[in-house]
Amino acid sequence: MTSLAVLNTSQLVTLGGLKRPRVATELSELGIIRDGGMLVCDGKIEKVGPSDEIEKNAGDAEIVDAGGRVVMPGFVDAHTHLVFAGNRLDDFERRARGETYEQIAKAGGGIWSTVEKTRAASEVDLLARAKKYATWFLRCGTTTVEAKSGYGLTLEDELKILRVIRQLKEEVRLEIVPTFLGAHAVPRELSPDEYLDVVVTEMLPRVHAEKLAEFCDVFCERGYFDIDQSRRILSAAKTVGLNLRGHVDQLTNSGGAKVMAEMGATTADHLEQTDEQGIAALKKANVQPVLLPGSVYALGSSHYPRTGEMIEAGLAIVLATDFNPGSSPTPSMPMVLSLACTQMKMSPAEAITASTVNAAYSLNRGDRIGSLEPGKLANFVIFDCQDYRELAYWFGAPQTYSVYVRGECVSRSGGL
Ligand code: NIG
Ligand code: FE
Q1: What band does 396 get if pLDDT is binned at 50, 70 and 90?
Q2: Given ligand 1 and candidates 102, 269, 299, 322, which is best to mutate, with the most ligand atoms within 8 Å of its CB?
Q3: Which one of 219, 254, 299 would you pick to mutate in the ligand 1 pocket, going by the greatest count of ligand atoms within 8 A of its CB?
Q4: Which ligand 1 atom sits nearest the alpha carbon of residue 84?
Q5: pLDDT in tens, 271-288
Q6: What gap in Å lies between CA 378 and CA 370, rounded to an integer?
Q7: Contact by Cβ (8 Å): 314, 288
Q8: Section 399-403 average pLDDT
Q9: pTM of structure
């Protein structure tokens, strides 16, 4: 048995308490233990409490002296596109000159350009890139990510990406939850309906048979998949037992949030254009919104989702990076916290709940990760600050001191 005693924190931010996603004023309850400590045994949390009490119970446990720093659960990033080849530097520069996401896509950039590069890349190459990004996530204090396919758009290329995700899980300490996003765009060689047939009759059965994904996602947007097409894909995915997520109402309000509610999805993601009817539908069906301010920011927009209304309506908000080469090239949850507080007017506490425990529930892992409570995995981060609000406040300054997954130190930077 290997044991750790984490001592001398300024704040042990436990997020302990309710065994369900947090809503309304619960979003602000972080369960902070000042001068807290934590006992870890065989990768799991055994006890949390005042540091001096934990010290008394430490026995021969290895001591991790937090030195008066903040200790929190590792971030759970519930929306990433982790596996792709190349980059989108040209799109980035075009956007800086004033072109929009849609104009750039029409001119040969956008998702399609990443698809071409990803198709041409070998599994070995994709794996090497993804490993590098996995290291970035850990360094930012993220210990679990959801990872989508979606830059292959043929049966073999989508399977290739999902297999890379599976291999990555074996080779890195970052925990990964796979999502099938075959319906990310319509490939040039097929009509939308022809491609839908491929997704439903060829891809989904293979993804299911090879157990390559837990969730199915769709990009429901003008020029990508409309409401009816999205419904067809999501229904087929549900039939094979996948849980549902969706990119909806990002660029236009097409009623995507309502479709996710109608389909009984776990999450509806983006929602920048969702109106009060969409919010009410999500509430009624208990769908968790996954808000992605990094993509709003990186696209040069200021049209953030109606976050205050969503909180008021009682939705169990999640925040995530949307890490991808086109619209959100950041692995940093602290950056997302900053955007949530400055642009979406969330409090630092609400933002932290949304990026830890609520995110864990949105990945069906609320019983194992997302908070520091006895029985949960010892996935935690020591940040080089004394107050959790500093994470959202010092934007752009790396504050990660060390990162632990299942009680093992997987990244150490020593802080600022
Ligand atoms: O979440 N909206 C669709 N998909 C991504 C963008 C992907 C890309 O541009 O490569 C997103 O923003
Ligand atoms: Fe996305």
Answers
A1: very high
A2: 322
A3: 219
A4: 10
A5: 999 999 999 999 999 999
A6: 10
A7: no
A8: 97
A9: 0.97
Q: What is the mean pLDDT of residues 344-358?
A: 98
Q: Which residues form the pocket of ligand 1, taking CB atoms under 6 Å from any ligand atom?
A: 81, 110-111, 114, 219, 247, 250, 295, 322, 324-328
- Characterize 69-79 residue by residue with b for buried, 16 or more Cβ atoms within 10 angstroms of its Cβ, and e for exposed: bbbbbbbbbbb
Torsion angle (degrees, nearest 10) of CA 401, 382, 295, 258: 170
Across 14-88, the runs of DSSP E, i.e. the strands, are 32-34, 36-41, 44-50, 62-73, 75-77
Q: Of ligand 1's atoms, which has the minimum distance to the CA of residue 250?
A: 2
Residue nearest to atom 5 of ligand 1 (CA): 327
65-91 pLDDT, tens per residue?
A: 999 999 999 999 999 999 999 999 999
Instruction: Label residues 377-406 b or e (16+ Cβ within 10 Å = b).
Output: bbbbbbbbbeebbbbbbeeeebbbbbbbbe
| 3-state secondary structure (DSSP) of residue 206 | helix
Q: Quick check: 416 pLDDT over 50? A: no
- State in Å, rounded, how far the first CA of the chain is from the last one: 33
The pLDDT value recorded for residue 105 is 85
CA of 150 to the centre of ligand 2 (A): 10
Please give the distance, rounded to the nearest whole angstrom, from the Cα atom of residue 78 to the centre of ligand 1.
14
Q: Using most ligand atoms within 8 A of CB, pick from 81, 103, 149, 323 the residue to mutate for ligand 1.
A: 81
pLDDT in tens, 125-159: 999 999 999 999 999 999 999 999 999 999 999 99
Q: What residues contact residue 43 under an 8 Å CB cut-off, 6+ apart?
A: 377, 378, 406, 407, 408
CA 147 / ligand 1 centre spacing (Å): 13
Length of the chain: 416
